[in-house]
Structure formats: C-alpha cells, structure tokens
Amino acid sequence: MLELTIEQISMGQSAVDKTAALQLLAERLVADGLVAEGYLAGLQAREAQGSTFLGQGIAIPHGTPQTRELVHATGVRLLQFPEGVDWGDGQIVYLAIGIAARSDEHLRLLQLLTRALGETDLAQALRRAGSAEALLKLLQGAPQELALDAQMIGLGVPAEDFEELVWRGARLLRRADCAGNGFAAVLQQVEALPLGDGLWWLHSEQTVRKPGLAFVTPQQPLRYLGQPLNGLFCLASLGAAHQALLERLCTLLIEGRAQELFRATSSRAVLEVLGGELPADWPSVRVGLANAHGLHARPAKELAQLAKAFEGEVRVRVVDSGEAAVSVKSLSKLLSLGARRGQVLEFIAEPSVADSALPALLAAVQAGLGEAVEALAPVSEVAAPQVLEPVLSAPLPGTQVQGVAASPGIACGPAHVQVLRHFDYPLRGESPVIERDRLQRALAAVASELEALIRRSPAKAIREIFVTHQEMLSDPGLGDEVELRLLQGESAPAAWMTVIEAAARQQEALHDALLAERAADLRDVGRRVLATLCGAAEVAEPQQPYVLVMDEVGPSDVARLDPARVAGILTARGGATAHSAIVARALGIPAVVGAGAAVLLIAAGTELLLDGQRGRLTVAPAADELQRALAEREQREQRLQAARARRLEPAVTRDGHAVEVFANIGESAGIEQVIYLGAEGIGLLRTELIFMAHPQVPDEATQEAEYRRVLDGLQGRPLVVRTLDVGGDKPLPYWPIAKEENPFLGVRGIRLTLQRPQVMESQLRALLRAAGERPLRIMFPMVGQVEEWRQARAMVERLRQEIPVGDLQVGIMIEVPSAALLAPVLAPEVDFFSVGTNDLTQYTLAIDRGHPSLSAQADGLHPAVLQLIDITVRAAHAHGKWVGICGELAADPQAVAVLVGLGVDELSVAARSIAEVKAVVRELNFEQARQLARDALVQGSAADVRARVEMH
Ligand code: PEP
Ligand code: MG
What we know:
With 952 residues, this protein is α/β, with parallel strands linked by helices. It has six domains: 6-139, Mannitol-specific EII, Chain A (3-Layer(aba) Sandwich), CATH 3.40.930.10; 150-274, Mannitol-specific EII, Chain A (3-Layer(aba) Sandwich), CATH 3.40.930; 284-367, Histidine-containing Protein, Chain: A (2-Layer Sandwich), CATH 3.30.1340; 400-414 and 540-644, Glucose Oxidase, domain 1 (3-Layer(bba) Sandwich), CATH 3.50.30.10; 432-533, PtsI, HPr-binding domain (Enzyme I, Chain A, domain 2); 646-951, TIM Barrel. Helix content is 42%, strand content 17%. The chain has 36 helices and 33 strands. Helix 15 (432-456) packs antiparallel against helix 16. The chain binds phosphoenolpyruvate (PEP) and magnesium ion. Phosphoenolpyruvate binds next to strand 27 and helix 31. It is found in: Cytoplasm.
C-alpha cells in the first residue's frame, strides 16, 4: 500500500534535465532496495510512451509492465527540484515522485494527491518548501487556511515611514513562517492599494510558504502618497485562503467601521472585527533556565519530547525577549529561542492540558532537562544582574583538574579560550548612513583577517574553509537583506545578526548534513563580524603554540586545527571515544576532554599543562612541575623516536609472544603512509566513510576501485573490511532512516544492511572483485544475534560462488554484549572476531559514547568489558580462531598490556599509534601480562584496573 512519509523525501535536488532526474530517482529506488538495477530503463520507456507530468509542478515517473519483475517492494521516493526540471513541452517539475509498484498502485498515489492537486499555486509552494515536513503537508493537506492570530497583529509599532511599516508587517509574516526572508523586499516593489480611511493593502505570492495576513498600525501618525497611513495589511498570498477574510473586510469598510481596526488597542479587538483566531487566555507558568549552556540541542530535545506527551498545544517564550511564543513540541523552534542560562521561560498551555502539562514542564526544567545544573537564585532575583554572575569560578593557579585522557602526550602553552561570547548592542541605529559605514568597515576588517588566515594556513582543507567564509561575506543576497534593515533604522549589528541567523536557520531546515555544516560556517563568520562591530575583536591567537580550550570540539572544529599552532586541546565536555577525540589522536595532538565547565573560565593566556595520557590538566603549573613534565615529554619523545625507528619490525614480547599491529583507516588515500608507519595490515576499514564521502551511494565500480587501491597499497598484507556501518546516530544524508528515540539501540550496522540487501550485496561484490587472490577479511558490525551473522555469511557464500577469491576469511565485530556472550556459539562458525571496544563499552556500561558528561566514565578498561573480551578470546582460541581489537582501547598504552595478557592476537590502531603500541608490546613479558590480565578481571572499576597497570 502506498503512503507518503517524510523519510521518502529528498529535498534540494538538482538535475540538468529530465534524463538526469530519472537517473537520480532510479538510483534512489535501487539504493533503498525497492527495485533492482535496470529499473531506469522502465522509467525512461514509460516517459517515452507519454509524459508522467501530472500538473502543479509534479511528475510521477513509474516503470512499465516489462520492468515490473524488477520491483522488490512497493514504495515511492520523492525528489524536490527547487530549480525545476523541464519535463518536456515546457512543463516544469519541482517534485518528482518515483513509484516502484508491480500493479496499478500509482492510482492510490493519485488519490493521496487529489486534495493537493486542487490547490492553486501548489507548484511554487512545492518549489519553495524548506523541509520534508512542509512538503508533505503541502501534498496531503487540505487547502491551507489563512494564518491570522494575535501574533500577526502589531499595534502602534515604531515606524517612521511607509517602508518601515511594511517591513514590520513582513517581519510578522516571516516570524509565523508564512514567507521567506526577502518578503519585505518583495512587498516594497508592490504597488500599495489604498482601502480608504488611511488603511492600505499590500500582497504578494513571492517567497510565500503558507498564507497569512499581518496587520500593523504605526506608533505615530504617518502619511503615504499624500494620504493618511493609519494601518497596513500585508498578505502572504497563497491560493484562495484569504478570500473569506477579504470579503469580510470589504463589508466592514463599506459599513464605515475602518477605525475599529486602526484605533484598536488590543490584538483581540482587531481579531474580533476581522474574524481571526482569538488569543486564548491560557494558563501559564514561569521558570528560570539553569542549564549552563542554555537551551541547547540536548535539553531542548528532552523538553520537546516531554511536551509531545500532551495532546493539547503548549507554547513557550523567553520573557523579556519581545519574541513570540513557540510550540514546545518543535525542537527547531525551541532552539530558535536561543534561551540562555538565567533567562526566564514562560510556558503557556491550552486549558485542557494545562493542569498536567505545566507542572510537568516546570519540574523538568527545574531538574535540568537531563543535565546536571547549578540551581539559579529564585525567579524574582533572576533578573537582578548580580545573580547572573557565573556560579563557577576558574580553577586556581596550581590546581590539577582531572578530565578524560583523549589523546596521549604532554602539552603546555598559553590558554586560548574559545567560547561563544555574548555581545550587547542597540537594536536601532543612529542613521542608515552611519550604520552602513560601520558595517562596511567591519566587513573589510574581517575580510583582511580571513585573507591573513588563508595565507597562514598550511592545510588546503583549512584554507578552503576560510575561502568559503570570504564568499559568504560577499554574498549579495545577505547584503541586500541587511541593507533593507539598515534603511529601516536597525543598527548594523542587529541587522547583520538577524540576517545571518535567518540564513543559517534556512540552511539547517533543509536537513542536509553538508548544508547544516555551512550553517555553522555562516554563524562562525557572522560572529566574527559581530565581534568587530562591537569593538571586541576576536581574541587573537597566541603567537606561540597554545592549548585550545573549548566547550566541546566538534569534528569540523578539529578539521580546522593547525597542529603546528595547537599544542593541546582541553574541553569542558566529551569523552575519549567521541569523534573529536579520535581525530585529535589521528592528528597527534595531546587532548584532555570532559574536564568540566569551570575550565572555560580560565583567563586567556594562562599557562596550562596537559597530560593527555593521564587525562590531567594543571593550571599555571609551578616551575618545578613544569620542568618535570617537560622532562617526561622529552623522555616520551625519545621513546617515541626509538619506537618510530623500529616501527617496521614485528611486535614481539620479551619472552617471544608475537602480536600483530594493524591500522584503522577510512579511505584508500594515504595507504602508502600507513604502511610506512609500520602497519602489518589493515585491521579496520570503516567503509561508511567512503559512502559518506559521496553524494549518493557509490556504485559497485566506484567501490571496487576504492577497495582495489587499498589492497594494492597493502602489497599482500591482509585487509580487514567492515561492511557499511551506518544508521542510528550515523545516518547517510541520502539514505533516509525513520527517526528513532534511541538511535544507538536502533536500526544500525548489520541490522540496517540486512534490510537493504542490494546495498550489502553490491558492497560484497565490489570487495570480492577487488580482492582476487589477495588476503581479504570481511566482518559485519553490530551483530547481536546468531541469525544476523548466518544471513550475512550466507550472502557472502552465495556471492563467492559467482566471484571466486583466493584468501577470504569472514568474521564479526564484537560490539554488542550479546555477541560476546554468544562467542562460544559463534566461534565454530566464524573465521575471526574483532572487538569494537568503543561500542562494546557503551553497550556494556549503558553510557552513550558521545554523552557530554557521562562518556568520561565509558572506559574500556572497565572489568565488565574485559570479562566480555576474555569470553571472546577463550571461545575463539578453543576453535583455533583469532581475535583482534579495533576500538580506541587498542591504542591506549595502559590497555595494551591487559589486552595482550587476555590473549588478543591483533591490535588495530590509528596509523600514528602503531610504533608506540609495538614498542609497548616489546616491553612486555607475556607471562606477566597474563597475570596482570587475570588481576584486572577481578577488579571493581576501570580506575582500579589502571592502578594495577601502573603498578605493573
Ligand atoms: C568500535 O565500536 O569500537 C569500532 C571500532 O567501531 P566505530 O568506532 O566505528 O563504531
Ligand atoms: Mg562500532
């Protein structure tokens, strides 16, 4: 049965012509397992028989009776083409709905679309839809109703002339999401219609998302074109939604009741006259927000989820912000409030749910919305400036702060603290000329700052980021919007930040990972300009290598780091297996993460000493301590140098026990360097990184070439490949997966690929073809059930008949406790196990590996995790199979002795760590390591295990 859901929709696609659009659709249908390769021919043949253009900018490509056999499952996939695709005869398609169906099920689709097709102007609305949700609404919804409620009425607004009043009206429409950013500019071009009695009317369909009417009256008497200007209607017009209102308004004017509108003192009075939605006298409660980082994504998500449990409407606003209340159920709207610690939230609920919803929301906010919070002073005092003083204080000189060891090494240098600063600026400017001049000077200053950064950055990837920032600064679209606001009297910082924020949100709304990153860039460069405008230039980077202090370092932040300037990384939040920590290790920058919010208060320039091995920070260390640390660093450097010199030799313990040391990689590029650094093979090829580097599922040939490059580079050394591990928290942008409450416990890894066998088959084929006679090891991620393994193995066995290979082993990753506990059952069937300690630790200890405050405790040396590894190794060895470790634990020098002692045969680590891990192995005595491992298994905590290792 065909149904429409947001998961089927891909927004913001582009295709040069109909052929390209059909190709995209076919790829989507194949990738999602609905049809087999070859369906494209059916789509093309059907178009050749007659265009599938439906009208209203929609086409419904589908196959022919001859290609029905290629359909695996009934379904549809929708591609939005905002730039339009010529479907022949001048018909422009903005939405192509590709159908996979064996019979005439597309008729059901027509039935689903009939209401939408009755709507006028649907094509433009489809083109402009900013999100899959909005698009679906357009398709399914009845003709939309005109939005007209209290939030659309602005009485006595400050306006000096007609243009400014127009801008006020347009702003109300934009806030209600009726129109896009440029709507004010659009209205300025339209000829205003005088309705009589000083009332004026403007309307346009351009950039309209949903129909809405705003009514604004000026604070002071104004005139326009020689007539009074008492009030202005601004209509975001879509279809015939405003028809009834217009008729009512005409009657009103004929009856001579215009002044009831422009003399009204409340929006309720205006709505009563116009027949709009009356403001409700809903119960409300207020509560101060105590979360240290405000209402950011995680607490906002908690709040939205809680609100969804109530049937009725619940809204929230930030008291004193002047902004309207938003639905608590919408995560994006909650984030758009930008609520900070210390601000007061007002929750307003529909009477039918107020009794239950308001106390629950109040209690949840007071409890911190899933975060540990420092209580605020009572609400009455919240507004008083003294209680807004930070509750935390910076650690004193000489203090040691324990964080999480995220990347080994000792670093020292001045603190370079990068936290979002808050700027105060007036909303109204002195005059458009003065504000324009200030803005231009700030833009020029930032442009030359960026120029300098580009010149100074050695890495191309980093330079490209700043070039993108430059382009953003000179974007004429942004400039026009800002100019409009300056003309309307806004100050330069207010105009600039409003436009930047709106543009960033628009990009985020497209639900595209790349565009979301661009949104972060836009905010980044936007704040750079703001800082200059507010006279608070960015804190200059220290000249000497520094310790970067941040709240949390995202992977993209790490990508921008220049390892020559950043001596170390210190974060307030995050854990050792967070992505950023993994990248820091790959770059070889010592890092301590999760050190607590107080580190953000450290004064810029304070000397810091980081011990990335022990996870320890010393603030302004005493001279002798610094000396000791530097001496230790020197020794470590010498040890590493010695280790590097022997990186190509095998890792054998003093008493002759050999351990293989392999590398973890995510792409073929740089494989020669990996071998140079001493890898004896690849122990984990994270193939999802290859998939993520492509805008669509890479086809078989592309994958084969990539795998072939790795095998060529390995020159006969073994390659352990993990099949695609996406889903859950790691979605592929082009692979829609239904939203899940607990993505880590959801459809990810093998669970997902078994649901999309075509993708898995094509990956396996590419691997087998690339391998030929060379040693290939294939393993499946996230196996938790024996049946999953058997299905996956059966697929490999079948394909192997088709594509013979000379040296293949098939195994599983041990990442889920159930797999470890089932190791005795699995061992006879597999060729090997590879333990993914990152996931195994998170699932054993029930701690999200990316959890901002808890992940610090997710230590893979926890005896419970070690017990599972022990079970795995014993079972494997009993059946003559080998066991590797490919999680981050394998590179932790303290863990190496324990893992070797447990009998692990192979350690797979980031290439940079190979030499060090080999050196640690060479220092060991296997018998003693076995004793250490036995001891570790009976400890009570990871800390106890680490203490044992230190003693060892
Ligand atoms: C693991 O879970 O330990 C692992 C190696 O896989 P990933 O970190 O890619 O999830
Ligand atoms: Mg994993």
